Amino acid sequence: MFRSVQTLPYLHFVLLQALVLLFAVSLLDKMVSFEMNDLKKIGLGLTGFGIFFSFLGIIFVFDKGLIAMGNILFLSGLGLTIGLKSTMQFFTKPKNYKGTISFGAGFFLVLIGWPFFGMLLEAYGFIVLFSGFWPTLAVFLQRIPIIGWFFQQPFVTSFLDRYRGKRVPV
Predict the structure, then answer these.
(1) Which residues of 36-70 are buried (b: 16+ CB within 10 A; e: fewer)?
(2) Type and span of the H or E element at 36
(3) 16, 8 in Cβ contact below 8 A?
(4) What whole-number distance in Å separates Cα of residue 6 and Cα of residue 165?
(5) I want to staple 132 with a disulfide (CB 3.0 to 4.6 A). Which of 128, 150, 165, 167 is the partner?
(6) What is the pLDDT of residues 96-131, one digit of tens each?
């Protein structure tokens, strides 16, 4: 019982990864000039499996093998989906150094056998790296038919409006 309560914050991290993946898929469907070739389909599948294995690793009390496999699949799927050059440019931008270093250090800690501290660093790096996408993600969440009602409430929109427009995505 005690260990399952400890995993709750990390489940939010995995759910956040899943939301980013859903958001990316919905954007890919709406882009007219974007061609969905086989590599991009494989990349989205690998990213989805990476999120799934990370979720399983957290559920099974920070199983380092599943979390490491999830990280490898997530990063390789991201590389295949947006391209290797775009992935390297995203992670090596000067404003993304703090997130890249913390995500990489967390990835390393998971690989050497410290999954709890590794996931802490990865969650921080993920939030810092993808913080430019939060305003766009908020607009996307407001347009989802069933749960969009919650994100359109005044107390939620006032919270989301504070962070809208601070950074531009990639």
Answers:
(1) eeeebeebbebbbbbbbbbbebbeeebbbebbbbb
(2) none
(3) no
(4) 33
(5) 167
(6) 899 999 999 999 999 998 999 999 999 999 888 887
